[in-house]
């Protein structure tokens, strides 16, 4: 497959995964505006911005005592995260769609049409419109459209290298988003000295793991159990270990690149990350350090993939 | 929908009606069907077609309009119909014309007999900016310089005429297929009853043509379609064609030349490319030979082509044969190379580099269409009858300053076809661009990108200038209309 096409599909997977992740975060965040305490709302915004490693508009978030201020801020912050900043839902979706447009010959016609319909709807949206009724339904609908796109891809896309690069992008991004979110959760909880059940419950909800947690541990929310579930549960589709295993499997399916040592390094890195979570997590208490290690490795893995299959040195490449 | 207010005039040939208002034989079934559909039903069909284009992202870009990326071409839902007999005449004329043009290109880059024999003045050829001295002495495989040609045809009361040959990177074929798909889905029973020849196999024929041109008779060549990239106005078409023929869609940065062979960068290493269907203009194709500042091309590509290690479709240097001045000599080329009379007429053309023609042009600006020889897409053109005295004066100054850059032609009474305009049938001017393919032999899909000037009274059909498209139905054989209606 053309290297540029593989890269385009890989980024397409990453952008849509990021957009879907943000939709989930914002859906929960705007839902709690209705009835949750200001402290919890503040925690939610902080967690989102910290996990994205971005500054909110105005440079920082303030815990204000008034509902009026909190709701007005929410409007601004949601606008920023939905449309305005370069990591917003709209930016990620538009970039994913742009990659799809350029790689349209590599994906199925059904995938393109599904995506384009969602794009046309999103293009007409604006934060004042979204805010008029139930904003959470906008985020739910957008996440659902991205999930539909993934389903259509699953059902219609030819299982060639392009498919594996698309999936690889999704799983690497999912692992990176989960790691960043967990690190933010731990960092903010540490700052507070007090652990609120509500913050961990909201984390479960954002990660679509609330029901799975209840089934395993009942409604008694304990941070350690929440972390274990989100990181190591092999039955939770988006747990960190599942994402890393899936990324490693995609790399195996793609096979060696033009320089065997380079693609082997990427596969080894994915395997190491997966092993780190499966073997080390249960016995270690320094979870932040371990997650930080995974995050760093995730960036390295991305670089290794691009170096192995896209930006390889031509001199070392066999010609066919 | 009734046609009671449909405006027929004797000056313009009407594609659906005879001058007395009776539907032409081949359009009778379409006419009857349309009469039975209400304005609302037709409006809904039109809406469905437009929406399908939008949803599927069948788009083009207008140069210089930042807001206009991914604009759809307005498609009129009423098809234009040609009989099989009409089509056969066109097919023969187009085949003849491309044969002569390929012979002309082989000749002027080698012996230049046509110049030596005084059929065409040397300055017409060598003075043309599209003449590529780098191609001198090169002989194209099978004599095929132009493998893909899009010829613009118009009809007047005197019959079909060639308006322009597009021999470099002709575009529009994807709309021929997309229009068909959309209109067929909306007028299903009519389509079936009418007996229309298919166009959807264009990709297969294109692939066959490209394979025939592979170096050293390679029967399973690696084919790539070279695009300038996503910002090109025809990018959708590049995607469409790459998909149709199963080729990689490459940009210049994906290719490199090593030891005279062309390779593309794949995830498994470098892969040799045998055939390149290029949609990049000559100027940008190879920065070592043409424009040094080009980022769209591939350094060394022309060298690889001249060594015979890769096929370039169309060949560089073909632009000299579709220059608007050289166009005037195509009938002479046909006589000279083929010893035949042209089957398709040219439009009378005044070449302003000739003093007499210049004088005539300047004296009759208000009655002529004046075009720049190097422009396309309807840009840089003066339509005399629609211009103001000031515009004519400004244009005349430009013509006087550089006469060789201009030609003029009489304003043609282009044929008209009914279009759905605000719920009513109104006549609009149309042309058509069939696509002629030539590898070892000539192949033409029975259809065309039919363009329509949607603005009332306008003669400009270009999509960049407010034009739209129509599906063109070529009937399987004459007199298919059975009198049955939808």
Low-confidence stretches of chain B: 480-486
Number of strand segments of chain B: 23
Provide the spatial order of strands within the biggest beta sheet of chain B. 3-23-22-19-18
Radius of gyration of chain B (Å) = 23 Å
Q: Could you say which structural class the secondary elements and strand pairing of chain B correspond to? A: alpha+beta
Give the chain pair forming the largest contact, with residue counts: A-B, 31 and 26 residues
Mean pLDDT of chain B: 92
> What is the straight-line distance between the termini of chain B?
14 Å
Can you summarize the main beta sheet of chain B?
5 strands, mixed
Multimeric status of the protein: heterodimer
Q: How many DSSP H or I helices of chain A?
A: 14
Structural class of chain A: mainly alpha
Mean pLDDT of chain A: 92
Largest sheet: number of strands, sense, barrel closure of chain A? none
Q: What is the percentage of strand-forming residues of chain B?
A: 15-25%
Q: Based on DSSP secondary structure assignment, what is the total number of beta strands of chain A? A: 0
User: Which descriptor suits the 3D outline of chain B?
Assistant: globular
Low-confidence stretches of chain A: none
